[in-house]
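Exam revision sheet. Question 4 asks you to relate a sequence to its structure. Input first:
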Amino acid sequence: MTGVEEAVAREIRRIARDELRLAVEAGDGDELASSLDSLALLSLVVAVEDRFHVALTEEDAAHARSLADLARVVASRAPPEVLPP
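Answer key, structure tokens:
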């Protein structure tokens, strides 16, 4: 992952932990669906969309199986001003 993608992944973890109170124990390459139920995963995706001002499609969700995949998609689409330093 690039530096920006790593920063996005850290922010996604923070959102899951601090805002949604989710216990995400998945590593960057682990499948998110194996550590979160479908409602928790949906809540996380919505919170990530809100935080980074992106819209994720069903196709994105199908391809973004891991935290690293999700961070990669978000980092490539988010406006630069909302990306973490």
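Marking note for examiners. The domain at 3-79 is CATH 1.10.1200.10 (Non-ribosomal Peptide Synthetase Peptidyl Carrier Protein; Chain A).
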